Amino acid sequence: MNGILVENAKVMAKGQITLPKDIRDALGVQTGDRVTLIRQNDQVILMNAAVYAMKMLQASMAGEAEKAGLHSDEDVVDLVMEMRNEER
Fold first, then answer.
1. What's the pTM?
2. Cα distances (angstroms) measured from residue 3 to each of 24, 26, 70, 72
3. What is the residue-averaged pLDDT of the chain?
4. Which among 18, 39, 40, 38 is positioned nearest to 29, based on CA atoms?
5. What is the pLDDT of residues 43-58, one digit of tens each?
6. Which helix (H) or strand (E) segment is 83 a member of?
């Protein structure tokens, strides 16, 4: 069970739960932060909403650099320099 953290929480009258401190720390969430809940069959995955958004962005952008002809860090630097020169 490496990397697995098991905690319990009680569901209150309005459906609210308190996330145990170890879970909050592991997810990097603090008071006021948002979380994303993902239901898979009979399980729910709880993620830091910012991390989930970044994962979705990365998935949607997969392969786009190659399509744009960017194959190395140097290609990216060259594109940035080109764009900066066009702005002038």
1. 0.62
2. 15, 10, 35, 33
3. 90
4. 18
5. 999 999 999 999 999 9
6. helix 73-87
